[in-house]
Inverse folding.
């Protein structure tokens, strides 16, 4: 598929997504990836609590002008991607837009695995985030209390991927750049929820 075709498909899907209101219990935030609109269940309380606690831990460690936030879409029409990371670390100035944020502005993205669609974080986003130029990607999985930090983007054969990966378990402290996330503060999902 050519870049022009991918952009055209993406723009059509983006237009549809802007005029579509998903029924409950689906989230009002949709993503676009691989030529499809991706609808998600509204996040569970512990999902949002984990994101909030990570945001709160990161914020005081960040230098002036850099923020951690739990809101904001990222978009790359050329790659046909509209994503909404659970926690974004980026320059505050990059949020000064009426459109989605450029993923190239991100210093890190954190995804809290959803019980309803874990493949989105472990497969699709793991494949796309290095192509979007996001230097650090952390997957937090409250289902089993594990995390995986990916970084060091390498390009080969016209594609990009993370070449470094370190797994963690809840209770570990994860270092990303100069920032530390204490996973001992993150909630686990109940066994019955997944």
């Amino acid at each position: 598929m050519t870049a022009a075709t991918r952009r055209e498909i993406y723009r059509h899907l983006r237009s549809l997504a802007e005029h579509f209101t998903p029924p409950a219990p689906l989230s009002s935030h949709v993503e676009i990836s691989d030529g499809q609109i991706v609808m998600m269940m509204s996040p569970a309380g512990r999902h949002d609590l984990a994101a909030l606690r990570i945001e709160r831990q990161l914020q005081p460690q960040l230098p002036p002008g850099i923020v951690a936030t739990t809101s904001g879409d990222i978009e790359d029409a050329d790659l046909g991607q509209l994503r909404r990371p659970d926690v974004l670390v980026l320059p505050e100035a990059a949020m000064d837009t009426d459109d989605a944020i450029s993923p190239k502005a991100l210093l890190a993205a954190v995804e809290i695995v959803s019980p309803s669609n874990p493949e989105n974080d472990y497969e699709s986003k793991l494949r796309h985030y290095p192509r979007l130029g996001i230097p650090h990607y952390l997957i937090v999985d409250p289902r089993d209390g594990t995390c995986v930090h990916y970084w060091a983007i390498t390009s080969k054969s016209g594609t990009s991927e993370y070449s470094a990966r370190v797994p963690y378990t809840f209770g570990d402290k994860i270092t990303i750049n100069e920032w530390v996330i204490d996973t001992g503060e993150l909630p686990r999902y109940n066994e019955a929820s997944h």
